[in-house]
Amino acid sequence: MKQPKIKIFGQIYKVIQIEFDNTGLIKKIVYQINARQNKTVFKGTEITNKSLTSKSIIQEPTCHPYHNYAYAPDLESLLVESY
Fold it and tell me: Over the chain, what is the mean pLDDT?
């Protein structure tokens, strides 16, 4: 099996780690931005807004307003084959 890559925020990155939930669906992907930096995207359909008082429904990958990670409603669709 070829190493998958992730296409997120208009760029393609190397996948470092994929975690699955009990049902076999992807719940977390860690990907490499550069040699010294990795980022994480979690499965989620809501994200807290900047005022931390409410949540918004998301339809696409969205960065958390105060942390260095993102949420996306469908992680499987972000994976692409490397050639």
Answer: 93
